[in-house]
From TrEMBL:
Annotated Aminotransferase class I/classII large domain residues: 25-401
Enzyme class: transferase
InterPro entries per the UniProt record, alphabetical: Aminotransferase_I/II_large, Kynurenine-oxoglutarate_AT, PyrdxlP-dep_Trfase, PyrdxlP-dep_Trfase_major, PyrdxlP-dep_Trfase_small
Stated name of the protein: kynurenine--oxoglutarate transaminase
Pfam families, sorted: Aminotran_1_2
Database matches in CDD domains: AAT_like (cd00609)
EC number(s) reported in the record: 2.6.1.7
Organism: Molorchus minor
Keyword Transferase: yes
Gene3D superfamilies the record matches: Aspartate Aminotransferase, domain 1, Type I PLP-dependent aspartate aminotransferase-like (Major domain)
Length: 413
């Protein structure tokens, strides 16, 4: 491999998908819903297919299918209280994954430094290295908790440590709120601190907000691009796969000022030219519906939050019942839990992986029929110790499958 690909050869997602195929556990590993997306969106896709408009089967405009970028512009104009230009300030992509690829490739150059907050969605690092950049890490650390009920809000960064990472080589900081895997929703004061450092050091913020509609009340999702002076230096990534529970569609987007988006558009048009027109049309129809219902009772976003909050609560309860210590998430679709109190029940020597969380999660799949994700993949080598006694579970699952997870966890008692 070229040096820029080194370190990314081993992919936990592939390895764990293989394990799931082989052992058929209750799968709370990879982050995907095990139920169908809402009917209004599958209906919208059926309508597209029935339509006799031949253009819906041809290339979309490279920056995005017109109907989709128009409705996204309307939605985010409303949420950010500024006029967003659908032609130059939005780019539709193949999932948030491609949006992140375009953002990093377009904004990071050889020798640039990129600050990442741990735990971080693991692909950020290979993307930065492929662009010739160097990741610099800062870990969120938990406040010592006095009882079993710790919250993702208890995990925070040290301000002095963050300040010390910024220097003249710093080009970008990546923020992910709500965070995968912790479920932390960054509050206004934390985001403002980051924003002030971006302004001071002339740094661009890539903000990954794929779980923006999955923030549990009373917490609120704050958009970095909406903070004073931040529109000009922020690109925001979103995902229809996450938003509408259809991760296989791979429709995403990124919005930001024309000055920055231009570079991302060049990467996108060179790599893929345009995304799937029929999918973008159906996603546009779904967003038009949501835009007209925003904040009202019929809103799907509202139902999504309520449904997910009760799944979160159930998951927390079953983890506490087995003596795992969950970190209660304020958003997203994952919960991490500390399993160290169960260590004596588990044969960690049956696996040979270096990190304990890999050994624990492999043991779980093979012995109690439950899959979770080893969270050390979300930390760099020096900080893996912080998270080695934890496991990540995905809870955006049918109730019946969460009950099966409970039954599996009961085998640990
Ligand atoms: N960012 C984060 C934080 C994610 O968790 C994921 C996928 N789970 C993505 C980006 C990629 O999203 P997509 O499936 O739309 O490519
Ligand atoms: N983001 C998914 C998760 O965290 C994994 C799939 C991927 O995009 N790598 O489970």
């Amino acid at each position: 491999y070229f040096p820029r690909l080194q370190g990314a050869e081993k992919n936990m997602w592939k390895e764990y998908a293989q394990l799931a195929e082989e052992y058929k556990p209750v799968n709370l590993g990879l982050g995907f819903p095990d139920f169908s997306p809402p009917k209004f969106i599958t209906d919208a896709l059926s309508e597209v297919l029935k339509s006799n408009n031949p253009y819906l089967h041809q290339y979309a405009k490279p920056n995005g299918h017109v109907r989709l970028v128009n409705v996204l512009a309307k939605l985010y104009s409303k949420l950010l209280l500024r006029e967003i230009d659908p032609d130059t300030e939005i780019l539709a992509t193949l999932g948030a994954s491609e949006a992140l690829f375009c953002a990093v490739s377009g904004l990071v150059d050889q020798g640039d430094e990129v600050i990442i907050i741990e735990p971080y969605f693991d692909v950020y690092v290979p993307l930065i290295k492929m662009a010739g950049g160097t990741p610099r890490f800062i870990a969120l650390k938990p406040k010592p908790s006095t009882n079993n009920l710790s919250s993702s809000a208890d995990w925070s960064f040290d301000v002095k440590e963050l300040e010390s990472l910024f220097n003249e080589k710093t080009k970008v900081i990546i923020v992910n709120t709500p965070n995968n895997p912790l479920g932390k929703v960054f509050d206004r004061s934390e985001l403002t601190l980051i924003a002030d450092l971006c302004k001071k050091w002339d740094v661009v913020c890539i903000t990954d907000e794929v779980y923006e509609w999955m923030v549990f009340k009373p917490k609120e999702h704050i958009r970095m691009a909406g903070l004073p002076g931040m529109w000009e230096r922020t690109v925001t990534v979103g995902s229809a796969g996450k938003t509408f529970c259809m991760t296989g569609w791979k429709v995403g987007w990124v919005y930001g000022p024309t000055r920055l988006l231009r570079s991302l558009q060049i990467v996108h048009q060179s790599a893929v030219f345009s995304g799937s027109t029929i999918e973008q049309e159906a996603v546009a129809v779904a967003f038009e519906r949501e835009l007209s219902l925003l904040g009202q009772n019929g809103s799907y976003f509202k139902k999504l939050e309520e449904g997910l909050r009760s799944k979160r609560d159930f998951m927390v309860k079953i983890l506490l019942d087995t003596k795992m210590k969950p970190v209660i998430p304020d958003g997203g679709i994952f919960v991490i839990a500390d399993w160290s109190q169960l260590e004596s029940l588990v044969d960690l020597n049956s696996e040979s992986d270096h990190n304990k969380d890999f050994r624990f999660t492999k043991w779980m799949v093979k012995n109690i029929g439950l899959q979770g994700i080893p969270p050390t993949v979300f930390y760099n080598e020096n900080n893996k110790k912080i998270i080695e006694n934890y496991v990540r579970f995905c809870f955006i699952k049918e109730e019946a499958n969460l009950v099966k997870a409970q039954e599996a966890l009961n085998r640990l008692k």
